């Protein structure tokens, strides 16, 4: 079959509708949880708002995972049934599970346990630092650390809302979620800027950069390998091939494979006059013309590696390295303005060892040494408002946002949220 015939067949053959799936929804305060059955993110928003008595416009509503990751239409279809999602109204602040744990400890300790001068002094001074004590009481049994599969270490997978069957695949996805979160926050900051709202030329430049960020991140598989021990320096390619769901390139849940997972009906764009670029490898799933259960058509647009004038590049396998060793142990890299962790071996963690350490690992951060919101994005916006942005600037912006050139993994104690000046 010719390429043209194959493309025509894909465009004309009916595709199965999204199946009806059940999810759980809660508000930002986690005061109650309600079940919602839906086929799409829009249907989820509509039904969730009705059940929670929310009257805001659906375009103002955001949906998040419990770890604080924003959910868009594309990512929604990769979620497992019965996943708990958070509905956010305009002006509300999302707290991740780790944030809630810290805030709960702070409130309980200070408001309930401050009975005496010594107790009050202990609980009100450097409380965040006290969280580090939790690391001392973790289960240090290493007997199952090296195990990968669910059946070999079932307690490690306890309560995880995922059908991923290996530790490596789960950690790979969690890192992708963190990197995806940086993308969403960057786009949100760009679109809320004066340049986006008031300068048409600047907006066009920003749109091109956003398109490039999305496409390059897909090419880089959202850097999920940072948390994936099968990519450690001590492991070769053979170890990766032995991990369930890993095909030598990425896992089944990787964004580059979403087009094979998401069922959708693609229609011809009226403006294309039948001329379509059928390079499936570079289709942005969010921009496909799809028809869901509500029969609402959306615009079709095809992206290729040269469509936005910024070249998409591939990284060699030797460049794809984990931040942990072959057992899965991570070391804190210290505060942003020094080259080491002052706490040494006290700031180590292996989320592959136990479920408790996996939970505690959520308090570790990928910290931007050059800050995203205070420095990187404002500098880019300034350039966009003045002139076209050359490749060198855009590539540097991408590296500083998403790669270990500017990201370092740090313990909560070493995460400085103040200005990095």
Automatic annotation (TrEMBL):
It comes from the Eukaryota. GO terms for molecular function: DNA endonuclease activity; hydrolase activity. InterPro entries: CIDE-N_dom, DFF40, DFF40_C, His-Me_finger_sf. Coiled coil: none annotated. The keyword Nuclease does not apply. Gene3D superfamilies: 3.10.20.10. One of its GO terms (biological process) is apoptotic DNA fragmentation. Keywords: Apoptosis. One of its GO terms (cellular component) is cytoplasm. Residues 19-96 form the CIDE-N domain. This is CIDE-N domain-containing protein. It comes from Microctonus hyperodae (Parasitoid wasp).
